Amino acid sequence: MDNYKTVTFWNSAGKEEILVAMLSEINFDSFEEKENELIAYIIAEKLNISELDNVLESMPLFENTTYEIADLENKNWNEEWESNFKAITIDDLCTIRASFHEKSQSKYDIEIEPKMAFGTGHHATTEMMISFMLKLDFKNKKVLDFGCGTGILAILAEMLGAKSIFANDIEEPAFENVAVNTALNNCSKISNNLGGIEVVPTETYDIILANVNTVALSQNLDLLKEKMHNNSLIMLSGILIEQVDTILNICKKLGLELIETKEKDKWTALLLKA
After folding, report:
1. Of 158, 181, 245, 264, which has the most beta carbons under 10 Å away?
2. The CATH number of 4-80 is which of 3.30.365, 1.10.8, 3.30.70, 3.30.1400?
Protein backbone atom coordinates (compact mmCIF):
# COMPACT_ATOMS: atom_id res chain seq x y z
CA MET A 1 0.00 0.00 0.00
CA ASP A 2 1.35 3.42 -0.97
CA ASN A 3 2.39 5.99 1.61
CA TYR A 4 0.70 9.35 1.14
CA LYS A 5 1.50 12.93 2.01
CA THR A 6 -0.92 15.81 2.45
CA VAL A 7 -0.30 19.33 1.25
CA THR A 8 -2.56 21.89 2.92
CA PHE A 9 -3.04 25.19 1.08
CA TRP A 10 -4.19 28.49 2.56
CA ASN A 11 -5.27 31.75 0.90
CA SER A 12 -6.74 30.05 -2.16
CA ALA A 13 -10.41 30.89 -1.50
CA GLY A 14 -12.38 31.23 -4.72
CA LYS A 15 -9.54 29.66 -6.72
CA GLU A 16 -9.84 26.06 -5.48
CA GLU A 17 -11.05 24.56 -8.77
CA ILE A 18 -8.19 26.13 -10.68
CA LEU A 19 -5.67 24.92 -8.11
CA VAL A 20 -7.14 21.40 -8.11
CA ALA A 21 -6.90 21.18 -11.90
CA MET A 22 -3.28 22.30 -11.91
CA LEU A 23 -2.29 19.99 -9.04
CA SER A 24 -3.94 17.07 -10.84
CA GLU A 25 -1.36 17.54 -13.59
CA ILE A 26 1.52 16.93 -11.16
CA ASN A 27 0.34 13.64 -9.61
CA PHE A 28 -2.01 14.85 -6.85
CA ASP A 29 -4.91 12.41 -6.92
CA SER A 30 -7.58 13.55 -4.45
CA PHE A 31 -8.66 16.71 -2.68
CA GLU A 32 -10.66 17.89 0.30
CA GLU A 33 -12.03 21.39 0.77
CA LYS A 34 -12.42 22.73 4.30
CA GLU A 35 -13.15 26.18 5.61
CA ASN A 36 -10.28 28.46 4.56
CA GLU A 37 -8.09 25.60 3.32
CA LEU A 38 -7.64 23.02 0.59
CA ILE A 39 -6.03 19.66 1.39
CA ALA A 40 -4.40 17.79 -1.49
CA TYR A 41 -3.27 14.15 -1.34
CA ILE A 42 -0.34 12.62 -3.21
CA ILE A 43 1.69 9.40 -3.12
CA ALA A 44 4.83 10.36 -1.15
CA GLU A 45 7.34 9.28 -3.80
CA LYS A 46 5.52 11.33 -6.47
CA LEU A 47 5.74 14.64 -4.60
CA ASN A 48 8.07 17.05 -6.38
CA ILE A 49 8.37 20.31 -4.44
CA SER A 50 9.94 22.14 -7.39
CA GLU A 51 6.93 21.25 -9.57
CA LEU A 52 4.60 22.35 -6.79
CA ASP A 53 6.35 25.71 -6.45
CA ASN A 54 6.27 26.17 -10.22
CA VAL A 55 2.48 25.68 -10.23
CA LEU A 56 1.99 28.38 -7.61
CA GLU A 57 4.42 30.76 -9.27
CA SER A 58 2.95 30.26 -12.75
CA MET A 59 -0.18 32.31 -12.05
CA PRO A 60 -0.39 35.66 -10.21
CA LEU A 61 -3.64 34.65 -8.48
CA PHE A 62 -1.67 32.21 -6.30
CA GLU A 63 0.93 34.76 -5.15
CA ASN A 64 -0.47 34.80 -1.59
CA THR A 65 -1.14 31.05 -1.39
CA THR A 66 0.97 29.16 1.17
CA TYR A 67 1.20 25.45 1.94
CA GLU A 68 2.37 22.90 4.49
CA ILE A 69 3.39 19.28 3.84
CA ALA A 70 2.67 16.44 6.26
CA ASP A 71 2.81 12.63 6.31
CA LEU A 72 -0.51 10.81 6.18
CA GLU A 73 -1.69 7.74 8.02
CA ASN A 74 -1.24 4.63 5.85
CA LYS A 75 -4.66 3.82 4.46
CA ASN A 76 -6.39 2.67 1.27
CA TRP A 77 -7.25 6.16 0.07
CA ASN A 78 -8.48 4.97 -3.32
CA GLU A 79 -11.12 2.91 -1.51
CA GLU A 80 -11.93 5.90 0.68
CA TRP A 81 -12.37 8.10 -2.40
CA GLU A 82 -14.63 5.53 -4.07
CA SER A 83 -16.90 5.42 -1.03
CA ASN A 84 -17.60 9.15 -1.45
CA PHE A 85 -18.26 9.00 -5.20
CA LYS A 86 -21.75 10.25 -6.12
CA ALA A 87 -23.68 9.67 -9.35
CA ILE A 88 -24.20 12.70 -11.60
CA THR A 89 -26.74 13.37 -14.37
CA ILE A 90 -26.02 15.82 -17.20
CA ASP A 91 -28.76 17.53 -19.22
CA ASP A 92 -31.27 14.91 -18.00
CA LEU A 93 -29.84 12.54 -20.60
CA CYS A 94 -26.55 11.10 -19.37
CA THR A 95 -25.86 9.63 -15.93
CA ILE A 96 -22.40 8.68 -14.74
CA ARG A 97 -22.41 6.30 -11.80
CA ALA A 98 -20.42 3.58 -10.07
CA SER A 99 -21.40 -0.07 -9.80
CA PHE A 100 -22.65 0.47 -6.24
CA HIS A 101 -25.28 2.94 -7.52
CA GLU A 102 -28.61 1.77 -8.92
CA LYS A 103 -28.90 1.79 -12.71
CA SER A 104 -30.38 5.10 -13.78
CA GLN A 105 -33.32 5.75 -16.10
CA SER A 106 -31.25 8.12 -18.23
CA LYS A 107 -31.05 7.51 -21.96
CA TYR A 108 -27.28 7.11 -21.60
CA ASP A 109 -26.30 5.29 -18.41
CA ILE A 110 -22.51 5.07 -17.95
CA GLU A 111 -21.04 2.88 -15.24
CA ILE A 112 -17.46 3.56 -14.21
CA GLU A 113 -15.04 2.29 -11.63
CA PRO A 114 -14.14 5.57 -9.91
CA LYS A 115 -10.38 5.50 -9.76
CA MET A 116 -8.06 8.50 -9.83
CA ALA A 117 -8.00 9.07 -13.59
CA PHE A 118 -9.49 12.44 -14.53
CA GLY A 119 -12.99 12.47 -15.95
CA THR A 120 -15.71 11.28 -13.59
CA GLY A 121 -18.14 13.84 -14.96
CA HIS A 122 -18.03 15.88 -11.77
CA HIS A 123 -15.62 18.48 -13.11
CA ALA A 124 -17.10 21.35 -15.10
CA THR A 125 -14.86 20.63 -18.10
CA THR A 126 -16.12 17.04 -18.47
CA GLU A 127 -19.72 18.13 -17.96
CA MET A 128 -19.46 20.76 -20.71
CA MET A 129 -17.88 18.27 -23.13
CA ILE A 130 -20.72 15.82 -22.50
CA SER A 131 -23.27 18.60 -22.96
CA PHE A 132 -21.74 19.40 -26.37
CA MET A 133 -21.70 15.73 -27.34
CA LEU A 134 -25.35 15.14 -26.50
CA LYS A 135 -26.37 17.71 -29.13
CA LEU A 136 -24.23 16.32 -31.97
CA ASP A 137 -24.66 13.49 -34.46
CA PHE A 138 -22.12 10.74 -33.76
CA LYS A 139 -23.77 8.07 -35.92
CA ASN A 140 -21.14 6.23 -37.99
CA LYS A 141 -18.55 8.86 -37.11
CA LYS A 142 -14.85 8.19 -36.57
CA VAL A 143 -13.81 9.71 -33.24
CA LEU A 144 -10.53 10.57 -31.48
CA ASP A 145 -10.63 11.02 -27.69
CA PHE A 146 -7.29 12.72 -27.05
CA GLY A 147 -6.29 12.56 -23.36
CA CYS A 148 -9.21 10.29 -22.53
CA GLY A 149 -8.83 10.04 -18.73
CA THR A 150 -11.41 7.53 -17.46
CA GLY A 151 -12.79 7.01 -20.96
CA ILE A 152 -16.21 8.53 -20.23
CA LEU A 153 -16.27 10.60 -23.43
CA ALA A 154 -15.19 7.64 -25.55
CA ILE A 155 -17.87 5.46 -23.94
CA LEU A 156 -20.54 8.09 -24.57
CA ALA A 157 -19.35 8.44 -28.18
CA GLU A 158 -19.96 4.72 -28.71
CA MET A 159 -23.38 4.97 -27.06
CA LEU A 160 -24.19 7.86 -29.41
CA GLY A 161 -23.46 5.64 -32.41
CA ALA A 162 -19.81 6.31 -33.33
CA LYS A 163 -18.33 3.82 -35.79
CA SER A 164 -14.93 3.74 -34.07
CA ILE A 165 -13.17 5.58 -31.25
CA PHE A 166 -9.42 5.90 -30.79
CA ALA A 167 -8.76 6.81 -27.14
CA ASN A 168 -5.34 7.65 -25.71
CA ASP A 169 -3.79 9.03 -22.53
CA ILE A 170 -0.22 9.48 -21.33
CA GLU A 171 -1.05 8.27 -17.80
CA GLU A 172 -0.87 4.51 -17.14
CA PRO A 173 -3.61 4.63 -14.44
CA ALA A 174 -5.93 6.18 -17.03
CA PHE A 175 -5.02 3.49 -19.58
CA GLU A 176 -5.82 0.78 -17.02
CA ASN A 177 -9.04 2.48 -15.91
CA VAL A 178 -10.30 2.86 -19.48
CA ALA A 179 -9.91 -0.90 -19.97
CA VAL A 180 -12.08 -1.52 -16.91
CA ASN A 181 -14.69 1.09 -17.80
CA THR A 182 -15.10 0.04 -21.43
CA ALA A 183 -15.65 -3.54 -20.27
CA LEU A 184 -18.23 -2.41 -17.70
CA ASN A 185 -20.19 -0.70 -20.48
CA ASN A 186 -19.81 -3.54 -23.00
CA CYS A 187 -17.98 -1.31 -25.46
CA SER A 188 -16.59 -2.89 -28.60
CA LYS A 189 -15.62 0.09 -30.76
CA ILE A 190 -13.05 1.78 -28.50
CA SER A 191 -9.31 1.34 -29.08
CA ASN A 192 -7.55 2.07 -25.75
CA ASN A 193 -3.95 3.31 -26.10
CA LEU A 194 -1.17 4.47 -23.78
CA GLY A 195 0.76 7.50 -25.03
CA GLY A 196 0.48 11.00 -26.45
CA ILE A 197 -0.06 12.36 -29.94
CA GLU A 198 2.68 10.06 -31.25
CA VAL A 199 0.48 6.95 -30.82
CA VAL A 200 -2.46 8.45 -32.74
CA PRO A 201 -2.66 6.99 -36.27
CA THR A 202 -1.92 9.19 -39.26
CA GLU A 203 -5.48 9.46 -40.49
CA THR A 204 -8.41 11.83 -40.14
CA TYR A 205 -11.36 11.81 -37.74
CA ASP A 206 -14.87 13.18 -38.02
CA ILE A 207 -14.93 14.32 -34.39
CA ILE A 208 -12.02 15.02 -32.02
CA LEU A 209 -12.51 15.32 -28.25
CA ALA A 210 -9.72 16.97 -26.26
CA ASN A 211 -10.48 17.66 -22.60
CA VAL A 212 -6.90 18.30 -21.45
CA ASN A 213 -5.09 21.36 -20.09
CA THR A 214 -4.12 24.54 -21.89
CA VAL A 215 -0.46 23.57 -22.11
CA ALA A 216 -1.32 20.26 -23.77
CA LEU A 217 -3.70 22.01 -26.15
CA SER A 218 -1.12 24.66 -27.07
CA GLN A 219 1.47 21.95 -27.81
CA ASN A 220 -0.81 19.64 -29.77
CA LEU A 221 -3.48 21.68 -31.55
CA ASP A 222 -1.52 21.92 -34.81
CA LEU A 223 -1.01 18.15 -34.78
CA LEU A 224 -4.66 17.54 -33.99
CA LYS A 225 -5.63 19.82 -36.87
CA GLU A 226 -3.67 17.52 -39.20
CA LYS A 227 -6.03 14.73 -38.15
CA MET A 228 -9.10 16.68 -39.29
CA HIS A 229 -10.71 16.80 -42.74
CA ASN A 230 -13.03 19.46 -44.12
CA ASN A 231 -16.10 19.62 -41.84
CA SER A 232 -14.45 17.74 -38.96
CA LEU A 233 -15.50 18.94 -35.53
CA ILE A 234 -13.21 19.39 -32.53
CA MET A 235 -14.26 19.95 -28.91
CA LEU A 236 -11.75 21.50 -26.52
CA SER A 237 -11.90 21.99 -22.77
CA GLY A 238 -9.63 22.18 -19.74
CA ILE A 239 -9.36 25.88 -20.54
CA LEU A 240 -9.58 28.54 -17.84
CA ILE A 241 -11.65 31.55 -18.87
CA GLU A 242 -8.60 33.82 -18.80
CA GLN A 243 -6.77 31.43 -21.17
CA VAL A 244 -9.50 31.32 -23.84
CA ASP A 245 -8.00 34.04 -26.04
CA THR A 246 -4.67 32.21 -26.18
CA ILE A 247 -6.34 29.03 -27.43
CA LEU A 248 -8.67 30.87 -29.81
CA ASN A 249 -5.71 32.69 -31.37
CA ILE A 250 -4.05 29.34 -32.08
CA CYS A 251 -7.32 27.99 -33.50
CA LYS A 252 -7.70 31.01 -35.75
CA LYS A 253 -4.19 30.57 -37.16
CA LEU A 254 -5.03 26.92 -37.88
CA GLY A 255 -8.20 27.90 -39.73
CA LEU A 256 -10.60 26.46 -37.16
CA GLU A 257 -14.01 28.14 -37.03
CA LEU A 258 -15.61 28.71 -33.62
CA ILE A 259 -19.18 27.36 -33.48
CA GLU A 260 -20.08 27.54 -29.79
CA THR A 261 -18.62 28.39 -26.39
CA LYS A 262 -19.65 27.11 -22.96
CA GLU A 263 -18.55 28.47 -19.59
CA LYS A 264 -18.94 27.02 -16.11
CA ASP A 265 -17.10 27.52 -12.79
CA LYS A 266 -14.25 29.55 -14.37
CA TRP A 267 -13.77 26.96 -17.12
CA THR A 268 -14.48 27.11 -20.86
CA ALA A 269 -15.28 24.56 -23.53
CA LEU A 270 -15.09 25.27 -27.26
CA LEU A 271 -16.74 23.61 -30.24
CA LEU A 272 -14.95 24.32 -33.54
CA LYS A 273 -15.08 23.19 -37.15
CA ALA A 274 -12.31 22.66 -39.70
Report:
1. 181
2. 3.30.70
